[in-house]
Amino acid sequence: MRIPSGVTDQFIYFVALDPVTGDRETGLTTFTVYRSRNGAAAAAFTTPTVNETDATNMPGVYELLLDEDMTIAAGNDSEAMSFHITQASMLPVTREIEVYRIKLTAGNTLDVTATGGGGIDWANVENPTTALDLSGTDIQLVDTVTTYTGNTPQTADHTAGIADVPTVAEFNARTLVAASYFDPAADAVATVTTLTNKTGFSLVSTGLDLVLVSSTFVAALIAGVWDRVLTGATHNIATSAGRRLRGIQEFQGYEGGAIWIDTVNGTAGTTDFENGTVENPVDSIADANTLAASLGIAVFKILPGSSLTFAASQTNQAFMGVDHNWTLALGGQSIDGTSIIGATVSGIATNTAGAQFFMDCMMGAVTLPGDTHVLRSGISGTQTLGEAGDYFYDACHSGIAGTSTPVWDFGAALNASNLNVRHYSGGIEIANMGAGTGTYNMSLEGHGQLVIAASCSATSNLSRRGAWKVTDNAGGAVTQTLDDNTQNIADVLVDTGTTIPGTITTLQSDTDDIQTRLPAALVSGKMDSDMTAISGDTTAADRLEAVMDATFIGQVNAGTPTTTAFIVDGTGLVDATDDHYKGRLITFTTGALAGQQTDVTASDGTTKIFTVTALTEAPADNDFFNMT
After folding, report:
1. If you write DSSP's letter for every residue of 109-174 in order, what string do you get?
2. pTM score, two decimals?
């Protein structure tokens, strides 16, 4: 972005990203802004004005008013200016602009490209007595050229004499006024010639004081420079202003406020605004670090396929993969306050203060410092806790297929530490927990397979939530605490594994015994009720059989029963002799007379009418009785 010197009403835009998730942040206030112009020391904005553009339609987009220190130094045509913006809930953002003068200033050359066809060397024009040899040069003169001769000094009121050549100081001060240096009415005119394109000639004139070009030509010359289309064919000279402007035009330079790295197709170089841009990424972390220090940038964008090895401390920075296809070796370096996004990570890292984050990574064999946060990542190698402290793994999963598991190694002499593994899926093994001094604590949430290695010992506490298949090779040395649901499941599993199998075995044995003996007890498919003894007494069984054989079951059958007579029907009551059943006892078993007994005083063999001693009431049709 280019802003004229002295203008204080322009804004630059930036995007606020969450330092952990990378999501766009809305509703932020209280920003801190530092500025540096043309290599000056960083200075804080006194009262930075930051507005949120539109939280609904442009979430996360903010605008900073550039209203402080916007005037460049005298003698400079252009100066770079960097702004570093921070806020507690977002990643730092660095933006860079160019502050320039809008007037044409002095310099060594002012070129017009091939379509313009000419050039002016101001160093030579500065001396009016020196011949200007333009042999072989195409010059496009689009207006009348008036040549003035003579050496008469210009008077103070510009009414006589010939103009002096403007000084360098006047050029730099941008105070050129045509009337201050010539007076066509008073000065002698040698020639007035209208020229077109000329090739292969030289302007040689003794006593030539000045060649003056009309204002329309100057305007056309400036327009030809500024309106020229910037392309790779005509503006590709390394470190040139044209190439840098083309980079801003086409790619916005350090897009996203980041140094761009491509170790596959990038190029070496540490020139500010030339190297490390989105269109010209550097090929090494060393060059990227040099540029970052020079420009005050703390964000690095890593292109696919790149491989980095940290060779110096990388603190309070962000390394963001354009996709998830890049690798990082930590190189034993400090990563205080640094975020790593989308990398396949290995190696050793340290820190002295602050937290470090790994997000959307594949964590290989690593040794990490305390206060490390690993989010939404796969675990494919041993995670060694490098020092006593707190460690956090959230929404991670095993990156090892099959029954094998990644290992979290507390180290042989780590001492008291806390490991938090939340929302985990897959296998996990813990080793050397409790190997040092102090109390070790671990929280494990999720589901999968847990292996407690034999190297774990007492003074270790594991709080477990979720569904886990546990293999405890430490023989219970680690104290496990389960939440209510997990404990209930564990209790059911204990019952399932001990009590219930024993009960099932007993039931199966009894069932087998019944199935063995039951068929033998059946007669024609029915249970045989033949009793051979009562309390071991066969005689008693025989007597009971005789009594039961003499007992008849009868039923009151229709008619009009009375308290002394009723028709009977019953199995065995078939004798047709009158009074055959006289003297027998009848005991009612159903109806209103149930339990009442009477005797038979007469029986009719033909009508089946029994006459009995009077009952308390007449029986009802279908009442049953026993007759003995």
Report:
1. EEE--TTT--EEEHHHHTSTTS-B--TT--B---SEEEEE---PPPPTTSSSS-PPPPPHHHHHHT
2. 0.47
